[in-house]
Amino acid sequence: MKNxxxxxxxNEYGSPVYVYDAEKIESQYKRLTNAFKxxxxxxxxxxxxxxxxxxxxxxxxxxxxGIDTVSIxxxxxxxxxxxxxxxxxxxxxxxxxxxxxxxxxxxxxINIDNLSILExxxxxxxxxPVCIRINPHVMAGGNANISVGHIDSxxxxxxxxxxxxxxxxxxxxxxxxxxxxHTGSDILDIDVFLYASEILFDTAKHFKNLEFIxxxxxxxxxxxxxxxxxxxxxxxKKLSAKFNTFCxxxxxxxxxxxxxxxxxxxxxxxxxxxxxxxxxxxxxxxxQVDSGFNHLIRPMFYGSHHEIxxxxxxxxxxxxYSVVGYICETxxxxxxxxxxxxxxxxxxxxxxxxxxxxxxxxxxxxxxxxAEILWYNNKAHLIRKQETFDDIINNQVxxxxxxx
Length: 404
Ligand SMILES: Cc1ncc(COP(=O)(O)O)c(C=O)c1O
Description:
Substrate binds at residues 298, 302, 329, 356. GO terms for molecular function: diaminopimelate decarboxylase activity; pyridoxal phosphate binding. The protein is built from twelve helices and 18 strands. It is α/β, with parallel strands linked by helices and 404 residues long. It has two domains: 52-260, Alanine racemase (TIM Barrel, Alpha-Beta Barrel), CATH 3.20.20.10; 266-388, CATH 2.40.37.10. Strands 1, 11, 12, 13, 14, 15, 16, 17 and 18 form a nine-stranded mixed beta sheet that branches. It has an eight-stranded parallel β-barrel with strand order 2-3-4-5-6-8-9-10, surrounded by five helices. Strand 14 and strand 15 form a beta hairpin. The model has no long low-confidence stretch (mean pLDDT 94). Bound molecules: pyridoxal-5'-phosphate. Pyridoxal-5'-phosphate (PLP) binds next to helix 10.
């Protein structure tokens, strides 16, 4: 996909618009499976929350992936995309027992991260296999909001609670089919996985009927030229060796599972916006685009970096700009960025816009969420229409305030 294709898409479909390159998704998927080729049974479960458009899910299905879901709605979306229940793992946190039971009724793999819920579920459904999410208490992740393995985290069952966990399993006679962890996002250091794997293997030894061990995700992708990323190839070599050794001692070839979101879709995404105004103040030149944190919240939420370039004037003289949105709070996408000269009407492209971008978009300021395009087989395919005013008003109910 060339920059000129992106400009054509912005002109044809309007802005703002999200564009995803299917080829990049495919190459990331293959890179990951190739890194773990030494493992007999590997399962990649794409984390739906990262980018949940049904056409993206269908693309993953075509690649042979399963999916990781965190809500009953994501489960339903996965089923609608054609995944069979066995290809879906459901890893909720803080949801009701009712919701977990609904997911179990649909036949998907259940992952529980709470002792109280585990006991209730096991007592009522001892024959439904359950995976357990362990919190190995390994501190990892790029930002406090995406580090979920630490001692104060709400996620997972603490390794310090294993004796309690074992009592529940024994009393309920439930069948534990998997052990899982997910310690955070943007993890640079593969030692985090290697160290945590020892904890998972130790935990796994307590259960005789395991089918898989799920190492979650959190792989870091590059956000700018020269940025560090998780060394997937080295991780593949080292973790596969450890896993194979463990399987030997366990006496069974288990499945090694991962559930990446960002690694698979982040770099495929391009968010295109139009410059509404260039505003020169005494200290700064602002480029004000037709979007805001209603469409792309990561810079404001996590301090995430998205490279921004001017794809409609790629040869213009470079100058410094602060790129901001049109929202009624401060919504700075990038401060003092060196960008080719920007004029009103230019198209600015935000990179790494595949993961946690559209899926976190909202209607704040009563704005429409943008269209989404999949670039597939050298053609642009509309995979979500831009919202209209009907989408804003449809579910609102007007009260007759004059009727006493
Ligand atoms: C349980 C679980 N699995 C997988 C993921 C995907 O993580 P990433 O996008 O860093 O690959 C997340 C992200 O929050 C998660 O919470």
